[in-house]
Specification:
about 350 residues; mainly alpha; globular
């Protein structure tokens, strides 16, 4: 399977150089114009918090809810907070940094990473809310659903039956070597630059893949909706032009925000592998997150059809047809992910 996929990509790069070149331009433009301006400050903040010991200030107010809800140690607080607010893949970057510094055990780091890797509020409000629906209120609601379902996902997949011995060992700044601020700052900048380069590389690769599969998707009814499975930002951009009611677009956008796209998931894996952060079940957790977010959004559109501009009522017959098409697309997405996971297990 690995040989087949490698040969297929090699052949595609040789046979379609123009599409690949356009994909590279798309990816670099996306990274420079949207991703890095929003993410790089959080990459730097993550490194500074972990290396300076400032993260300990976050552990006091978060210690009790983390222990009670998720059986996580106080030292997990920076990854939880930055993962829920910083945007993809700040949660994984912070978790990997905490694991590298010895603040978290491998098992605890894996549990944190399973649910604390989310889109940022600016991304949800700016790109999804204003960009697709013309409503910051709708974007804020999407972010609220996104975070709520992330926390619920953590309760389902990240809470062990019993506290682990490793997580009862307190972590203090004294366990880290003392360094000057200049040394800490330089190390944080270097780590942020390496993370930014990883994000840019994966965005570019998946934009190339999107360019290669576009001719196929364009011949499938609503096939362009699959773009978000590969790359989140491109997939949300495609939603704007789909001939679907806003309520269906909202549900699909909610799923994509939770799932994150394969580009985000590979970014997380690239950041996790060098420090030995386990990634088993990560894709399944993101799939669960997306499915729960979509279900909650669909429920809200049914219960309160006029609460937000995106819930504006439409023709019932047209809405029913579009809901059927949406659920067909969602089933196809789930089957694609499930099939890919089975194939990966056989490699």
């Amino acid at each position: 399977m690995k040989l087949f996929l490698s040969l297929a990509l090699f052949a595609a790069f040789l046979l379609f150089p123009a599409a690949c070149a356009n994909g590279v331009r798309d990816g670099l433009s996306l990274a420079a114009g949207q991703a890095l301006p929003a993410l790089f400050p959080f990459f730097l903040a993550s490194g500074l918090l972990v290396r300076s010991g400032l993260a300990q200030a976050l552990t006091r107010p978060a210690a009790r809810p983390l222990a009670w809800l998720y059986r996580l140690p106080p030292s997990a607080a920076p990854a939880v907070i930055l993962g829920l607010t910083g945007g993809y893949p700040v949660g994984t970057a912070t978790t990997a940094d905490l694991l590298r510094q010895g603040a978290l055990s491998r098992d605890t780091a894996a549990r944190v990473n399973a649910f604390c890797n989310c889109a940022s509020p600016g991304f949800c409000i700016g790109l999804a809310g204003l960009g697709i629906f013309g409503s910051a209120q709708t974007g804020a609601m999407l972010y609220g659903i996104h975070i709520l379902t992330a926390l619920l996902t953590g309760l389902l997949v990240a809470r062990p039956a019993q506290p682990t011995v490793e997580d009862t060992v307190p972590y203090t700044p004294d366990t880290m070597p003392r360094q000057s601020f200049s040394a800490i700052f330089c190390a944080a900048v270097q780590q942020a630059a390496a993370t930014a380069l990883t994000v840019t590389a994966f965005l570019t690769v998946f934009c190339v893949l999107l360019r290669l599969v576009q001719p196929v998707l364009s011949h499938v009814p609503y096939g362009t909706a699959f773009s978000g499975i590969l790359e989140l930002t491109s997939g949300l951009d495609v939603l704007r032009a789909l001939p679907l009611p806003d309520s269906v677009k909202l549900t699909l956008a909610s799923f994509l925000l939770g799932f994150g796209g394969l580009a985000v998931q590979f970014q997380a894996r690239a950041l996790a592998d060098p420090v030995g952060l386990p990634m088993r079940g990560f894709a399944a957790c993101k799939l669960l997150h997306g499915a729960m977010a979509a279900a909650l959004t669909a429920l809200l559109t049914r219960l309160s059809p006029t609460a937000l501009p995106a819930f504006a009522p439409v023709d019932k017959a047209l809405q029913q047809r579009h809901y059927s098409a949406f659920f067909l697309i969602l089933l196809l997405m789930l089957f694609t992910i499930w099939s890919g996971k089975k194939a990966k297990n056989k490699i």
